[in-house]
Write a structure and sequence with these properties.
The structure is a homodimer. The first copy, chain A, is an alpha/beta fold. The first copy, chain A, has one domain (47-73, 87-260): YjeF N-terminal domain (Rossmann fold, 3-Layer(aba) Sandwich). In chain A, 31% of the residues lie in helices and 17% in strands. Chain A has 7 helices and 11 strands. In chain A, the strands form 2 sheets. An 8-stranded mixed sheet of chain A has the order 5-4-3-6-7-8-9-10, covered by helices on one side. A 3-stranded antiparallel sheet of chain A has the order 2-1-11, with no helix packed on it. In chain A, helix 6 links the parallel strand 6 and strand 7. In chain A, helix 2 (54-72) crosses helix 4 and helix 4 packs parallel to helix 5. The two termini of chain A are 26 Å apart. At the A-B interface, helix 2, helix 3, helix 4, helix 5 and helix 7 of A face helix 2, helix 3, helix 4, helix 5 and helix 7 of B.
């Protein structure tokens, strides 16, 4: 045993007011507690009051989620000039809500990096402003947009990104477009990345291989697959304002894997 | 020699209307031409018209520049829980302009990742809105802000990030705060990263070891050091609108090194 030791490492650097039913830890053993959706929402609202607007969050989430996706698709080995004729295909399934807008932002960054993106977004007469503005930018990539499941590929894609769910409206799940999209995803056999999935009481309509949670994890069900966490740029004192003692668990990364503690 | 070959690789995938005096290439040999500041400005304006606002650009530039900085500071080896008592120190020198705002955004993300950030920003009665909003967020990290060179460290820091220059106003260089900050940087002996440096006719007041250019490089002088390029999320068709034929040179990355061709 080594007698010369540095200061003891504190592994519990994040303390939340009402610890959720689940705890995670990082590769280096830092504890990351889950929080309730209500607290998560208050944290995002507090950040917005200081200017970390939804628009900024959409951009940052899009960048970090696309970085994770590019790694999942094969990273530097797959994305070389010599491979340009083998562009990977990603099906992006989005509902008409903020989670959908996050997905479209991710889709733009993927399409910018020569990924073949097919965006499914159901037809609605009026969309949220945040969805419309992401869509305007996405269309400029030349990425494909469809509103009917029939126009999604019959053959397996390389990856499905699931942004069908939102945190507040579970009625969505009963809508025909939602059911059709979920069924398509389950039949396609491509691995699924869920972006910002909700805590689901009823289980997940689409089982994910990976899930990416934002800033602090919700207590996710098993169907969420392997959980990753995304830094969305909230300063420490904003965490404090909603009662969370926070030190970044991210090290030099912006997306890290979490493990059930 | 290998007879079985794939399609020939096209290395000149970016074609600009008036090629600048300099050409760069990526690690994999793709040619990246430089463009004039005027064309760069038109490109950003076109992107803004489609909703890629200054605010979004600030967030994305901040994230990507901080990712590059975290790598320069030592990456995963430096940022482990066991190293928390050895936090690296970064001096961030910002002028009162958009380039300064980009720097402050980068500073927030660095401070969020447990880097000790000391922001120098000269005192002005009225600041640009974009600078004020970045500042509001930065202050919440607990990062330090000073307006006098006297309050910057006497001893070498780990890295200096230079955001003193803007592209349009070279008169800045004659102001006392600018000269004092440049002199401090040159005396500190820490390596310098220049963020979005201008094409400088008069040479650089602060010599950089690295420079990070945004979206397409300007023809930078020798004093800019090793040039890196940052993806800021502009879709291909926006490039087309200002006459640039564009395919991403970034592969799966958001920041890549460039070499003089």
């Amino acid at each position: 045993e080594n007698i010369l030791e540095g200061k003891p490492v504190v592994y519990r650097q994040i303390v939340v007011p009402q610890p959720g039913p689940k705890e995670y830890c990082t590769d280096s053993g830092l504890v990351v507690p889950s929080i309730s959706y209500e607290l998560h929402k208050r944290l995002l609202s507090a950040a917005e009051r200081y200017g970390l607007t939804l628009e900024r969050r959409l951009e940052m989430t899009g960048v970090c989620a696309s970085q994770m996706t590019l790694t999942l698709l094969g990273g530097p080995n797959r994305f070389t000039p010599k491979n340009l004729h083998q562009r990977p295909t990603v099906a992006l399934l989005c509902g008409p809500h903020v989670q959908g807008a996050q997905g479209i932002s991710c889709g733009r960054h993927l399409a910018n990096h020569e990924v073949e993106v097919i965006l499914f977004l159901p037809n609605f007469v009026k969309l949220l402003d945040s969805v419309t503005s992401e869509l305007t930018l996405f269309i400029k990539t030349g990425g494909k947009q469809v509103s009917s499941i029939k126009d999604l590929p019959d053959t397996p894609v390389d990856l499905i990104i699931n942004c069908l769910d939102c945190h507040e409206n579970t009625f969505l799940m009963d809508q025909p477009w939602y059911r059709a999209a979920a069924e398509w995803a389950n039949q396609n056999r491509a691995p699924v990345l869920s972006l910002d999935p909700p805590v689901s009481g009823q289980g997940h309509a689409v089982e994910a291989k990976w899930s990416l949670s934002l800033c602090l994890p919700l207590p996710l069900a098993e169907g969420a697959g392997r959980v990753y966490l995304c830094d969305i740029g909230i300063p420490r004192q904003v965490f404090q304002e909603v009662g969370i003692k926070y030190h970044s668990p991210f090290g030099c990364k912006f997306v890290i894997p979490l493990h059930s503690a």
